[in-house]
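Data availability excerpt. The first of two example chains:
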Amino acid sequence: MATRTKKATGTTVKDVAVRGQGGTALVPYHRGEIAFCSIQPYQAATLEKDPNAPAVPAFAAKWAVVTPDFPSTAYFEKVGDFLSGTYQGTKVVQANGKDTILYLLEVGQAPDNERIAVWDCTSLSIKMPKILMGERICIQLAGIRPSKNFSNPWYDFVVLRAKG
């Protein structure tokens, strides 16, 4: 399963396919080549307030907090990790001084759906232009391949679309 980290709050939650209203989640997992799902208790982890954080100045106590307009990001840690949802298009962001594309997927079911971003890479930039907005897709890490010039390895992804 892919682990997602919310950049705005630093909260980490496990990827779930469907969150229930009763605090349960349908969590996908694999045994060999067969995919299963299990119903497990679900509660998003929250971080405690940092005791060393500086206090807000008195004059700004009722001001609104500015949060970044940045979706949660999917991280694929091992081969077989996947994220499935409805494709919502792309977003261009500045990263390390250059424009980078994020592919946006809406996961879960209303009213608990959440928008998750997947960072662009060569493997995805070849496959994602064929996907239409609103299609149900699954992005799975197929392998981590060595680079020909011995630099960092590259991530190979499989993109699946729902039939019908």
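And the second chain:
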Amino acid sequence: MSEPGPPEPAPEPAPRARRIPRRYLALGLIIVAICVLGVLVLVRDDSGPPSSPTTETFTPAPSSLITAVASVPASVFDTVGVSSPDIPVTAPHEVGTGRQAPWKASDGDSPARPVVFFYGAEFAPYPAAERWPLVLALSRFGTFKKLGLMQSSMTTAFADLSTYTFWQSSYSSPYVTFQPVERYSSLNATGARYLGLERPTAKEAGAITLFGEGSTTFALLDVANRYVLTGAAFTPGALTGLTQNQIAGYLTTPASPLTQAVVASANEISASICAVDGQEPGAVCHSHGVLAAAAVMGITPGR
């Protein structure tokens, strides 16, 4: 029997793992999170613009559309007059000279002219409707050099109406000064409120307080502090489902109910302007359609 060999040496203890301080572990997690977030941001930026824009984009109306509205034949204005049996029309009403001094303004070195002030908001349906007869009427006294296309909000009554915007528009006239304010955009990026566009001046804010129904009521049309219309001359529903080109196309057909509403209102706005600018130009102010509107509104031509 052999002798037992020497005893096996005791195993050496395994080396202790080094412990990472907790502060370094937390820092590492933060760095990883930042890297992941950066990748997500890059992916989102590469995927295109966000679904809810936060800045307004001006879309110019084609010159052909502006020309079509400005070229409505005088015979259409005279044939329609103030007749709109299917779509009732409300005319601007006289507020009297005692409530406010006549409103005149000058563009640069030109003489002071009566002010046509419009207070609207792109999202609202009533300004959407009122811009059509206003553009038609102002085109008889001057020229729009730039005008924007716009759709009213899709989430209000009378949704998604084809209209214009006066934001960044350009208008010139030897007879009147046009001062539009588009208070809010049609964009609703936050879901809580529409994006602000323009703020009224102190003079304009005074007209809104005096003649409007509050700073958030749209629209307001003020012709030289003499003739005022709050809201729209006719129901915005008359524009439902139509494009700008389709609406403009109707304006040469006097028998169209939409044409009658827009043109009758334009004649009444024209009569208001003629009453404050000295009845100029005569071809407009002495036309059959404008004289018919003046008679209905109680305006004595030449006063």
